[in-house]
Amino acid sequence: METYSFAGSQALFRRAAEVIPCGIYGHFSPAPLVPPTSYPFFAVSGKGSHFTDVDGNDFIDYMCAYGPMVLGYNDPVVDEAARKQAEKGDTLMGASPLMVDLAERLVELIPFADWAFFAKNGGDMTTYATMIARAATGRSKIVAIEGGYHGVAAWMQGGGHHGVVPQDTENVVRIPWNHAAAFECVLEEQPGRIAAFISTPYQHLTFADNELPAEGYWQRIRELCDRHGVVLILDDVRAGFRLDLRGSNEYFGFRPDLACYCKAIANGYPISAMVGRGELKSEAAGVFYTGSYWFQAVPMAAALACIDELQRRDAPAYMADYGRRLTDGMKRIADAHGHDLKVTGPPQMPYLRLTDDESTMLHQRLCAECTRRGAYFTSHHNWLVSCAHTDEDLERTLAIVEEAFTVLDEEGGT
Asked: Are residues 319 and 298 both part of a single domain?
């Protein structure tokens, strides 16, 4: 099987490093990709579940642009809706009627939601949610999970990060995941000071096995929030619309007060959303929050088309089935080669790790060998699948995995 080279990506990155901090910053940074010489850094096109890099290499994408691609790159239905709106206008001197349509659609779709609000990034919504919670409660403290990621705002990045000072995080209290008793302790130790509890629906940190909520966990968190007047914020930015179209809280059986969405809402067009309970609507209205491009009509048209397509295709079920077949197939191959491949998290967003080597170097080698052959895997982050992944993709992927394990064995895969 052909192995790819990435001379074009490497050359372009050297140019980028001269004029852009880090060359490529944020979650697309090459830093976690080991070895970086086995990965593309720049993509030029995409179609369905595939993208093509600057060297002309074709990849089956198992990161889905870190989440925004859910129906497939250049999905014809979503792109046609966006194109038709672009012909009329995008950022205009007034809000688009589509904003009302999209808000109504989300309220109709998500059972606990009574209203919706739109911005651009997931972090826009998590920050807005904490502001609403503080306005509604008159309190300052936010309880979050240790290691939990809710955006790049200074209040959430935490100590030790460049540009973050102690005052930025003094009102954020961190507790362990799946530990409702720890939350109860904070509430008892700081009575009347906790405005909100914020968490993803399950624990999906980088460089770590994913952890589902323990039985009764979310119900207990809900009970404690109700008892102490705390706003329960669900960060559904990554998992939203992949586990359940009604929100990941429905998948796990609980009701938040506010929920934040982004990644999969518009198949790559820039928009994020928050939905909330009616009791918080007046408080949300009182918080001034806006952005230069938050009223763009094209992403709203794309979001309406994307949500309809996700519903028509029963997207969560499709992605769950594909994800199970992918990970089951990979585990069988790993077993045949004498390796233990651990899979955690929902099948739509699995995290995989070879347990043979605690240093993770072996797993890094596996992911690199697969990527060099056209199945784009990362070793540090949960993967994602889409409605565009096909049986042909699965067959090709498993063939790549088989060859990658053979290479590891020949090179001494320990």
From this structure: no
Alpha carbons 264 and 272: distance in angstroms, whole number: 9
Helices (H) and strands (E) in the chain, counts: 14, 13
Residue 12 lies in a domain: no
Range of the domain at 328: 314-379+394-414
Give the residue ranges of DSSP H helices in 175-268: 180-189, 217-228, 248-252
Q: Which of 398, 406, 392 shows the shortest CA–CA distance to 326? A: 398
For the chain (414 residues), the mean pLDDT of every run of 10, in chain order, is: 94 97 94 94 98 98 98 98 98 96 98 98 97 98 95 86 89 97 98 98 95 98 98 98 98 98 97 98 96 97 98 98 98 97 98 92 96 97 98 98 96 68
DSSP state of 212: P
Evaluate whether residue 9 is within a structural domain: no
Please tell me whether residues 154 and 175 are part of one structural domain: yes
The CATH number linked to 363 is 3.90.1150.10
Q: What is the reported pLDDT for 414? A: 56
The predicted structure's pLDDT at residue 384: 98
Residue 374: count other Cβ atoms within 10 Å of its Cβ.
Answer: 19
Number of structural domains (the chain) is: 2
SS3 117: strand
**Are 243 and 365 in a shared domain?**
no
Q: What is the CATH number of the domain that holds 206?
A: 3.40.640.10
My answer on whether omega of the bond before 35 falls inside 30° of 0, hence cis, is yes
In the listed set 290, 312, 334, which residue is the last one of a domain according to the structure? Answer: 312
CA distance 371 to 60: 9
Q: Is residue 231 part of a domain?
A: yes
What is d(CA 331, CA 12) in angstroms, rounded to the nearest whole number? Answer: 36
Distance CA 49, CA 116 (A): 30
Tell whether 320 is covered by a domain: yes
Strands (E), 249-316: 258-261, 272-276
Question: How far is C-alpha 17 from the geometric centre of its chain's CA atoms?
Answer: 27
Q: What residue has token string 């990849």? A: 59
Is residue 310 within 8 Å of residue 303, measured between CB atoms?
A: no
- Tokens matching residue 117: 């609000």
Residue 313 phi, psi dihedral angles, 5° rounding: -90, 0
Residue 65 DSSP symbol: G
Closest CA to 125 of 113, 117, 137, 114: 117
User: Are residue 367 and residue 282 in the same domain, yes or no?
Assistant: no
Contacts of 108 (CB under 8 A, 6+ apart): none
